[in-house]
Amino acid sequence: MIDIRQTQEYANYLKKEGWIVERIKNSNYFIKKLPLIGSILKIQRPKEINFKKIEKLCKKHGVFQVILEPKLITSIEDYHNLLISHGFKLSKSPYLPSKTLQIDITQPISKITANLKKDARLAIRKNLQFTIYNLQTNKEIKTFREAWKKSVKFTRFVPSLESLINLCNSFSIHHPLILTSHNAGAIFLRTEATAYYWQAFTNKEGRTSLSQYSLVYQGILWAKRTACKVFDFEGIYDPRFPNKSWSGFTHFKKSFGGKEVNFPGCYTKFRFPRF
User: Fold this and answer.
1) How many angstroms separate the CA atoms of 3 and 253, rounded?
2) Model pTM greater than 0.85?
């Protein structure tokens, strides 16, 4: 299945965010020009890796760094050896989650629910009385962002209002879903076959009431209604690239069941740009 970062919709989004997008044979190559030093080329979860095309784009755009995050098709070891042979090095800090959790949502909803862990089922039942809103207008998105900003520490990244609107407009064909209650919020995106738990926030009251469980469950139901086959949690803790701050929400995500999926990681290559 195609990764969301290889869709036309995601390409449209990054164009709005100031990236140059070269779309060659249904593969997205993202270029960011930086003053004086050249450009960065980013390739994320492509169906195949074409080193000749990468080299041509590097020459065309004066690229000094290539960031490549492969989609797992063969084995991690095979990818590692291939990329090392082409001058890439494994980065200690992936840009994309190197490990994720996916639920097969082609199965009946009764089976999906049965696979939830006890804490998830209890939290969902506890929050049945909460009102959940699907946001659609720019004004509603602005209110959503303001609540997000108030709910997290100042060091936590929150997308700009313009970026959130760009995201929604770029994915309008597949109707992105933004859900919010009075103490939590979540953004869900989808391709033809896969839905993504893209971004979320919860304030102190929401963490106490566990309302995020209900938002995620509603996202899963939405994904199933829209004929998606897979629900992707978009990242869990990976011991290969340890980040202790991911432990808490990994426990939360794993309470929904599903299978773990590993990716090779992030590989980078530095070169001398030719202008």
Assistant:
1) 20
2) yes
